[in-house]
Amino acid sequence: MKKKKVKIGLAPTRRNVFSVEDSLKYKDLIEKKLKSWDIDFVNLDSLNKEGLLFDRMEAEKAARIFIDAEVDAVFAPHVNFGTEDAVAKLARDVGKPFLLWGPRDEAPLEDGSRLRDTQCGLFATSKILSRFGVPFSYIVNSRVDSPVFERGFKNFAAAARAANSFHKARIGQVSTRPGDFYTVIVNEGELLERWGIETVPITLVDIEKSVLDMVKSDKRVNDEAASLKKRVTFKEVDEEMIKRIAALKIMLLDWAEKENLTAISFQCWSALQLALGLVPCFVNSELTALGIPVACETDIHGALTSILLQNASQEESPTFFCDLTIRNPENENSELLWHCGPFPHELVKDKSKAFVGKHFILPSGAPGTGNWEVKGGDVTVARLDGINGDYSLFIGHAKGCAGPFTLGTYLWIEVPDWPLWEEKLIYGPYVHHVVASHGRAAYALYEATRFIPGLKPDPAQPAEDEIKAYLRGSDL
Fold it and tell me: Is the peptide bond before 77 cis (omega within 30 degrees of 0)?
């Protein structure tokens, strides 16, 4: 899985009464820094001879440059005081996540004059952005080479990618929710009206017919089945079922490409077992590893959480869709992240013990479940949910830890204060489904909510004040 690279619209801004030469010096320093981080950006060199935004009459033209270049976000470093109204108009017209920052000023010159007064301009611009109704992220006034600037910029890029992936997402919905799962009821109309999110339905009859036809006539199925058998151990799964598993994977990938799907929510039991004699858990894991996350039990909010977390993480690692299952009997602050088998195989801790087999809970005992523990380390856990039009995003950091063996795919995690997490999850609008990924993405998820109107961040640990302190660089 390779994450989309974020294209930044770079709009350095100055004000006429301060040094043009120093503004150009800092424009050059900032561009060199972004290039050193391999950031894809579009500047304003075609706007005027300086490549700087300072004429309010050029704001519309500058916006058009960024819109035509299809930028994903806008960054307006104040290379001196800046021109606040031009910046705000640009940000409003482009309508993408916006970052405000300026390099820290040096001491006044010997004659008492000052070259930039950058910080002063940042205060001015922040007010006008608010006047214009433009949501924005801010990096504390700091030097170009400071770790605060690097941390803040890279976190913003991840947050922008997450927010952009969420807006106008297309969720493939395989059948209705299971009858027993009131927990995954969603307001489809509200998702469309508020965030432009569409659900794209398909019936299990369509799935069944396509898969069975492909097993008979699509040569890709045999090739995929052979590839799977080279990578994965199958236990008590016959050749016909391996072919059906391969066909289901190909069919879903074809559907996702045709419909431009961002993620899929799947009614994984029990009608599918009657139709095809299998469970899709392992297939779900394969698609998730390819960057099309699949949520179990037709959990559309779970699919949306997967999209956010997949794109907020700065690591090239897939998400995994989990049940919050049981507390560790030997660790008060440890919890089991588990599901029947959809955690991506590439995350497996010990390949020698991993296998695809039969479901050990469902009465059908149908084949298709992954069975492996995934690797530990730093993990981010998240869940988007809502009731009565109020939506929030649970966020927390955990670490993988030791715990008892179980079937299915799983990871035991440890947090500083599990009772705090449990209380927040119980009283919030949440369910037993969460999404996890390796790495520490709480900071980017928190920032992403700035650009998703109507979605409130709800961090557990780190708490909100800890997230803000991290983004300010208080630990540096």
Answer: no
